[in-house]
Amino acid sequence: MKNQLFRVGIVGIIALSSFHAFANCSEELTKSSSRTFKVATDFDSENSNVVNAKKMVNRALEQINCPALDDTVSASCQEIVPKNSLSTVCYIESDLGHFFTISDLADTGSVVLNIWD
């Protein structure tokens, strides 16, 4: 009986902490219809641009206590200036809104989140 109560208590604590994190995320997202984040981009250069863009977005979401993106979220990247990889911009849609990512020449990048109306 004590083990069952202990398990129920642990599950309750986990559920409560998840709800609290979601509440913080929702509160942060309602502050503005658009947010910009500076994130580290110290990723493996062997990864595709899409993989790295999703990692950038997840790092931005961590900053406001939001859950990470689902792996099935659609994303695409394109060079704005043809044949210039430094001009690559990625677009990612999620149920939170849509994101644009761009990396700079150092180990940082920018993530712009536009929240759905």
Q: Can you put this structure into words, describing what you see?
A:
It contains two helices and five strands, in the order H-E-H-E-E-E-E. The protein is an alpha+beta fold and 117 residues long. The protein has one domain. Strands 1-5-4-3-2 form a five-stranded antiparallel β-sheet, covered by helices on one side. Strand 2 and strand 3 form a beta hairpin. The longest helix is centred in the N-terminal third of the chain and has 28 residues. It is globular and about 40 Å long. It starts with a helix and ends with a strand. About 12% of the residues have low confidence.
Short description:
This protein is of the alpha+beta class.
Distance between the termini: 48 Å
Instruction: Write down the overall geometry.
Output: globular
Biggest sheet record: 5 strands, antiparallel
SSE class = alpha+beta
Helical percentage: 25-40%
Global Rg: 18 Å
Instruction: Please report the number of helical segments.
Output: 2
Low-confidence stretches: 8-21
How many independent structural domains? Answer: 1
What is the N-to-C order of secondary-structure elements (H for helix, E for strand)?
HEHEEEE
How confident overall, as mean pLDDT?
A: 81
